[in-house]
């Protein structure tokens, strides 16, 4: 978890909200089952506005509650799974954003939160998809699942800068998948999201192998123009990892 988040939360909370959250944390610490009633009330008492790094005030406050649970292993997984299953979208997002923190606080947690990540990735809710693709998913998704998650993010319009682990995990196969996606967009006469190009440029030859450059000679004006725009954007973009 980004260490700036709890600091930003404390700075944002009013005196009344801070007192409510402190009491809620104490109640959860004494009785884990209390979280089931408290979790949905967080937004009303602490606020729902944006915080930092894509988090909301309610996300951070709920993460603090989850970290206070005196549970580990299977008991912890079962509790957060129930909160996710029965929660609304905001509550589900908070659980997903908290997976990294839960792994930090419980060494036995490991990859046991992956079913929640995969459930989010099967949805079309961009908030949940983005929340799922944090540091926890970047550590635990297998290569194929990570690549598919990145591709879905691009398809859903989620900026790749918000997907954790890209610097370490964007490999040649992901570049190939992204440039094939770009080719499909061009063939439909559509523009390509600019953030795919740094990944493609980091793996020479993937653009040429996709056949996309040949679209500049298409007999269809929309495809031809889209290809010209795509290649111009590719040429103007530094490869991933470049300073």
SSE order and pairing:
Layout: H1 4-12, H2 15-30, H3 35-38, H4 42-46, H5 57-68, H6 73-86, H7 89-105, H8 114-122, H9 126-132, H10 135-140, H11 143-155, H12 166-169, H13 172-187, H14 197-201, H15 206-210, H16 221-236
- How many runs of DSSP E, i.e. beta strands? 0
Tell the overall outline. elongated
Number of helix segments?
16
Termini separation: 25 Å
Q: What's the alpha carbon Rg, rounded to whole Å?
A: 21 Å
Oligomerization: single chain
Percent of residues in β-strands? under 5%
Question: Spans of 5+ residues with little confidence (pLDDT < 50)?
Answer: none
Question: What can you tell me about this protein's structure?
Answer:
The chain is mostly helical and 243 residues long. The chain has a domain at 170-243. It is 65% helix and 0% strand. 39% of the residues are buried. The mean pLDDT is 95.
